[in-house]
Design goal:
This protein is of the alpha/beta class. It is about 25% helix and about 20% strand. A hairpin with a 7-residue loop joins strand 5 and strand 6. The protein binds flavin-adenine dinucleotide.
Length: about 260
């Protein structure tokens, strides 16, 4: 949680904050590039414990990978480690926010939503749901499905918050797939896109409605699996897969932020 009090920095859910890591890039000796992080909060819904302050929450995965030059060493991602190592009182230089397209529409509750997240891709959806809550909560006329894909159960972020929302709103559906511990009926690993098929009786009619919006955020490549599932959902029900996919991914109802 970064304190924005006293700054003119504002943002809306779906946008990403740019973080400028201090120091210079070892190779170029130039200042580090900005890295983007999706905001996980809403300015309309102050975080518990920060009721009177303007803040932004980021949800950052610490990057540690095998070093390209020497596999016995670890490479630490520059910006993610900078953020994860911050101490209370440290300063952070922000840019942006960036992004206009990946956003809730003006008349938010005139639409249904199917949200697909993997890993830190959950961040913007937590922000969307905080914003919806601040706008009075999800009314009966709007259905919101949140499909969250992780590998293991210790990666299920904001689980308690989403469960509390699901208990409060009968038209908010929260489902998690764990690829390393859950399987499809054919024995394959259960990824986020497979849940669309698990709940076919609800998701197919929803996708067929013109006011249903799809948002995808997280690991690059997840969008391909989701497209395949949309087609399969249709063909399993005797509907033309290409037609449903074309309808569901029209640019005014389909939003993707993968990295
Ligand atoms: P870098 O130092 O930039 O390294 C990047 C990658 O290159 C790493 O995977 C690293 O393993 C590899 N690499 C580089 N050099 C080496 C080397 N010598 N040896 C081995 N590997 C190497 N991230 C989040 O955690 N949360 C978010 O909400 C989020 N939102 C995003 C939104 C958008 C729109 C975009 C584009 C990206 C988002 N990201 C998010 C990703 C984020 O911007 C950074 O890319 C990520 O944190 C890694 O940055 P870094 O500086 O830690 O790693």
């Amino acid at each position: 949680i970064l304190d924005l009090e006293g700054t003119n920095y504002t943002y809306t859910p779906g946008q990403s904050a740019g973080v400028v890591p201090p120091g210079v890039d070892e190779t170029s000796q130039k200042a580090h590039n900005v890295r983007l992080y999706s905001v996980a909060s809403s300015l309309l819904a102050p975080e518990p414990g920060y009721e009177n302050r303007k803040t932004v929450m980021l949800c950052v995965k610490r990057v540690k990978d095998k070093h390209w030059d020497d596999a016995s060493k670890l490479y630490s991602g520059v910006c993610s480690n900078f953020i994860c190592d911050l101490k209370p009182g440290d300063s952070v230089q922000l840019t942006g926010p960036a992004g206009k397209h990946f956003a809730l529409p003006e008349n938010t509750f005139d639409y249904n939503y199917i949200l697909f997240a993997t890993g830190t891709g959950i961040a913007p959806f937590r922000a969307f749901l905080r914003e919806m809550e601040a706008a009075g909560g999800i009314p009966d006329r709007a259905k919101v499905w949140l499909f969250f894909g992780v590998r293991f159960d210790n990666e299920i972020l904001y689980d308690a918050e989403f469960k509390a929302l699901a208990a409060k709103y009968p038209n908010f559906f929260y489902r998690v797939s764990q690829s390393r511990t859950m399987q499809n009926p054919d024995g394959s690993r259960k990824y986020v896109q497979h849940m669309l098929l698990d709940y076919a009786t609800e998701t197919l009619p929803l996708l067929q409605l013109p006011n249903t919006r799809i948002y995808i955020c997280g690991l690059k490549g997840m969008e391909t699996g989701i497209a395949d599932s949309i087609k399969k959902l249709a063909t399993d029900a005797g509907v033309d897969g290409d037609t449903l996919l074309a309808q569901a991914t029209q640019k005014e109802r389909y939003f993707e932020e993968v990295y």
